[in-house]
């Protein structure tokens, strides 16, 4: 896609971080926006911001883990704008979808699943000759408030602070590490531009941190060489 003006972008997770950055960039490119997030208070603030830029905006409170709410998002989008030109499934795909580190097995499982799903759907679209193009965004650490996402969890996913793990030294150390790497990540303002540039170039894998390329390459080489994963080599 080369021309964005007057087209419609749907962005989930639009109230914070990457979703917010994508909304601003889309508005600056003249797009109309459908913004979705579970945090409706902050979503309305983003709506005001992009409306001032000139976008026509529809904001909807959506919990993307609820099928009926996602379906309603689609229905309302078509009812309002009649089409969708860009859909940002902004569900936290990050560079751990392309590599693996210690201590986060469940986290990595979900990220690898997101990348695999995107690849498989992309192959299927090519197979049937569809004009729909896909990209998968795999960023490294970016300056967002991702480390505060527990505050916005749906009630059924809230952390049980009575669980011993959440008062453990290991958990607290992990939180401190998360705070540090996010606060020292790349500026959020660069994200929107890089994503839209990749979309213009029909680029499937969108990476933000060249320093991870070697790690990703080493992982693939380890697999092809028939070697076992070695945590000590990884941590060098």
Automatic annotation (TrEMBL):
Keyword Oxidoreductase (UniProt): yes
The keyword Oxidoreductase is assigned to this record: yes
Keywords (A to Z) from UniProt: Oxidoreductase
Superkingdom of the organism of origin: Bacteria
Gene Ontology MF: a single term: oxidoreductase activity, acting on the CH-OH group of donors, NAD or NADP as acceptor
InterPro entries, per the entry: NAD(P)-bd_dom_sf, SDR_fam
Family designation: Belongs to the short-chain dehydrogenases/reductases (SDR) family.
Record protein name field: NAD(P)-dependent dehydrogenase, short-chain alcohol dehydrogenase family
């Amino acid at each position: 896609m080369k021309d964005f003006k007057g087209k419609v972008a749907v962005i989930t997770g639009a109230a914070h971080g990457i979703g917010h950055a994508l909304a601003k960039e889309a508005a600056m490119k003249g797009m109309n926006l459908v913004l979705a997030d579970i945090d409706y208070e902050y979503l309305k603030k983003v709506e005001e911001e992009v409306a001032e830029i000139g976008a026509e905006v529809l904001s909807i409170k959506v919990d993307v883990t609820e099928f009926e709410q996602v379906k309603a998002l689609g229905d309302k989008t078509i009812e309002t704008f009649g089409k969708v030109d860009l859909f940002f499934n902004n569900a936290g795909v990050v560079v751990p979808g392309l590599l693996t580190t210690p201590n986060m097995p469940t986290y990595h499982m979900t990220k690898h699943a997101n990348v695999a799903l995107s690849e498989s759907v992309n192959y299927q679209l090519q197979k049937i000759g569809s004009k729909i193009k896909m990209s998968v965004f795999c960023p490294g650490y970016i300056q967002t408030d991702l480390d505060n996402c527990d505050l916005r969890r749906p009630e059924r996913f809230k952390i049980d602070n009575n669980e011993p793990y959440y008062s453990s030294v290991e958990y607290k150390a992990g939180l401190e590490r998360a705070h540090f790497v996010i606060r020292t990540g790349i500026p959020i303002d660069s994200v929107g531009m890089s994503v839209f540039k990749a979309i213009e170039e029909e680029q499937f894998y969108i990476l933000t941190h060249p320093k991870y390329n070697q790690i990703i390459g080493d992982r693939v080489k380890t697999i092809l060489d028939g070697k076992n994963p070695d945590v000590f080599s990884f941590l060098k």
